[in-house]
Sequence to fold (694 residues):
Amino acid sequence: MKSKSQKIEELLKEVYQIDRSLSRYEKELKKIISHLLETRPDAVIDEAFKERLKNEIMAQIEELKGEREKKFSLASIFNFGTPAYAVAGSLVVLLLVGGIYFSQKSNNGFGGVISFNTIGENGFGKLTDQNTNNVPRAEGLGSGSSPAPSETTKTSSDTQVTGRGGGGNSGMAVVPPVESINYRYIYGGEEIVIDKSNIDVLKRIKGENSASGVARMIKGVNLGLIDLNAFGNSKVEGITLYQDKDRGYSVYLGFYEGIISIYKNWRTWQNQSRCLELSSARCEVPTTNPLTLEDIPSDEVLIKIADDFIGEFGINTKIYGKPEVSQTWRAYVSQIEDGSMAVPEEMQVIYPLIVDGKKVYESYGEISGLTVSVDIRNKQVASIYNLSTQNYDRSSYKVANISDILGLAERGGMNNYYYSDQASKTQDVKLGSPEKVYMKYWKYDSVTGISDELLVPALNFSVQDFPQNADYNLKRNVIVPLAEELVNQTQLDYPIPLIEKSAQ
Amino acid sequence: MEATINENLIIEKCQKGELETFGTLYDSYVQKIYNFIYYKTFHRELAEDLTSKTFMKALENIDRFSSDKGRFSSWLYRIARNTVIDHYRSKKNEFDLADFWGISDKLDLHSQLENQQSVEEVKKYLTKLTKEQREIVVMRVWDDLSYREISQILGKSEASCKMVFSRVMKDLRQNLTHLLLLVLLIKLIK
Fold:
């Protein structure tokens, strides 16, 4: 950075190079240049604008890359090499590009960029369902705990998804132990100060413009059995593509929901549970039957399997944090060791979604993000889910007061319905100082049956000194949303035991 | 020089498909381009809008950039300059406007300007210059661009740009007494 006098000298030198006679008026010229420099307006760039524009540029980059590259990487995975498949291959590639393309047109991006659009206060209406408190159950062509593609608008991440598609805590059923413990959460951290009266709640934007764009692309194609032109004003909600090879995969592109799920093409994989049951000679069931704790690869191996697969598919993980292996199954280790429980067939590697520098958690305390389920027997990826466009509307909502927040933390957070009158004992656990996070929350409208996917600023109170033989119902993380309406709603919902232990 | 070499490597990567590296170019130039546009518009929101357009155009056309034809910075500033010109032309197509300086005081746009005080004072100098002279002075003094860059942005020779600047200094010196009196008068009124 040059000083003012250096700059003046430099300019004068240049002027004299052209017209030496001007050096006689150096004093006056210095005044002129000095005044010009002094009158330079302050052009202070707004940092928020800078960041916003960078996000937009990165989104645009994703779009351009989608156009330039994805068609090659995905097309190479779905290699339709034979002439018979050529037309279908072109269509598939077209759709794939279309699918990726749709996600970018409105500044969307799969895995690469998060974008925000600020709207007015309370812009999403009431955060809670005004009609009923029922939590919907997801069914259909789903995958894991993410919304099911065909019925995603009716799902809740707080419920288990059933149906074809794998994912979630799939594999052999893991049932909770009969005997249980009631846990009492006690806050033992530092004083919490919340210096804001409002917080920004985010709502994931889902689009249909792109879906109609994809519909336009395939409308002219007569597939023989179905004339797509007959479906006037039609929109493509989603399509499923599959690899026709041994241990191939299927890819579901959810255009409306803005999601991609990848899972085993069940036609080309051996049905392991049937093989285990029938002991057929045609089956190649590796390793032990059933699996033992020794069969579970280390976290490093699981993460490498996930990383390799993600790399092969060209999935951008820029907006996700360092992958971690879900430890949920460990709650059942004691039952596995005594033989009353089977080792899960699949383990989940989660790439935590990071929004505004904060991790996103499910309301029940699990980290939320791109999830890769690894098949333990084959040491191969079984499914990928929670890969979605990350574009949000942002709206301001009132913050709950600190005593209500702490009260909810000590009741175990949202949806902590577990309470057993049969529990053999009650155990106190300590909650540490909280960390600022986002909580994924499904705002369900029981009239329309549609759920909006919200990210609500929240506090994560981790359980300190997590007990080794903890019961399955003990949360590692107690997530408390900061939105007043949700905290108050949860106070109303919380089930009260018929007889308090202390009153017995 | 080293910065230019690195810059060329980044651009090469962009052109080979590693578009994420464009983020580095954005980080290096966003403030400079914003300033460049702001000095032509004196309006924050407009400058932001035109800065966005500039970078989007640059990203979409990065394949067309060739270091043989000049520096990346000059190419980017040229896009910014054209974006500003396009904006003013679309606003008032009966005039050949290149920037805010060409706008009549009667236009609404003028009342929306920020930094009014600076603008008024600078006008004493700059509105007396031709469009070309003004651009060269602003680029050299405020944007701190080299004559090489200015020449590439305007499509002129370095020598002619230096000549223009020198002539402006000569003219301003001749009017200096008058100008200083005027500035003094404005300060007294305030």
